[in-house]
């Protein structure tokens, strides 16, 4: 293997970074680590291989960064004014994230890794962003606005709603728009509303 | 490749079948399809390769059968006398199934397959047995004994409890005995009890 230039601190063109990381995720989603060869990433992103090596010293580094730098924020940036409003925002963001290339890439790459895989450290443990943190944020906002008393709304109720979406995705059940709307309504009524009475 | 004998209807020694299927699941759990070579299965099960070929014409057939014939029954065979009793039975069976070699094998094999993989048809869509069917069974029993009115207990509440366990497993969070007991208690109180009031 030829000696490679060391990566230099900040990449020079952020748009190239985005294109390379997106190409890596797409290829991982199509066939896992095997399909995500650096040649293929370079072709898909329309760059030379050297452009990739200047940024990431190895494929493992590129893959880790592709997952790490594309994790979506699931909590709506704007407070939606109610626990249910914020919760539906998180659930809709989660459903969208589960349809995105990053989740497809995760599905074909991460579960198949053994506990001793050198790729594993630094990879996300879940297919999408930090939904546990988003759930805690929803409950904290509701407590701050006095909608629920401190500690009275169980985060597990909303975590369970998220888990239903993750489970559907894992078992390959597509979520078209109409099904998603119906499911989000049912999740609200069955899991969230009972804890908002009184 | 030498001509192989065709499989003959019923296998001759069921104990050998069990040993071969268990060896295949173990190896899949250790490293997916690559690790589950027929040589390795034969060694692990303590049989000759011909013994395997007499039963399954190809590795894909063996792998499908390993998943299909070892799916656990999640609904307790004995009616536990209450919806919560039956539900806890399903959740405990699900937690145990997620710790078993079959779930580990599924995790390292199935999510990584592409939609066009020839192995995919005939493989289970989920890591364990039929938990949706088990949930429906719990609710049907409760309705039959008059504990809940027809259609008043939402199966989604119990499906969500199952999904929490599946999500924990997927993201690699171990469930030791004490954590499992605490989680099952919380799932009951947050997800099931609100629908049993009145």
Automatic annotation (TrEMBL), chains A, B:
PROSITE patterns named among the record's database cross-references: HTH_TETR_2
Domain HTH tetR-type, residue spans: 14-74
One GO molecular-function entry: DNA-binding transcription factor activity
InterPro entries: Homeodomain-like_sf (IPR009057), HTH-type_TetR-like_transc_reg (IPR050109), HTH_TetR (IPR001647), Tet_transcr_reg_TetR-rel_C_sf (IPR036271), TetR_C (IPR011075)
Keyword Glycosyltransferase: no
Keywords: DNA-binding, Transcription, Transcription regulation
DNA-binding region: 37-56
A Pfam match: TetR_C_11
Protein name listed in UniProt: Transcriptional regulator, TetR family
Species of provenance: Klenkia soli
């Amino acid at each position: 293997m030829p000696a490679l230039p060391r990566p230099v601190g900040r990449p020079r063109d952020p748009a190239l970074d985005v294109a390379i990381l997106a190409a890596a995720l797409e290829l991982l989603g199509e066939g896992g680590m095997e399909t995500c060869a650096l040649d293929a990433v370079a072709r898909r992103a329309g760059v030379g291989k050297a452009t990739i090596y200047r940024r990431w010293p190895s494929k493992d580094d590129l893959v880790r960064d592709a997952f790490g730098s594309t994790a979506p924020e699931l909590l709506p940036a704007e407070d939606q004014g109610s626990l249910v409003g914020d919760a539906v925002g998180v659930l809709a963001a989660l459903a969208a994230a589960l349809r995105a290339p990053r989740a497809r890439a995760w599905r074909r790459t991460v579960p198949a890794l053994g506990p001793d895989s050198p790729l594993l450290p630094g990879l996300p443990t879940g297919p999408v962003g930090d939904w546990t943190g988003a759930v805690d944020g929803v409950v904290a906002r509701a407590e701050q606005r006095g909608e629920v008393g401190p500690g009275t709304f169980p985060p597990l109720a909303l975590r369970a709603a998220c888990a239903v979406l993750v489970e559907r995705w894992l078992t390959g059940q597509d979520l078209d728009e109409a099904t998603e709307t119906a499911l989000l309504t049912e999740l609200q009524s069955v899991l969230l509303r009972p804890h908002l009475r009184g």
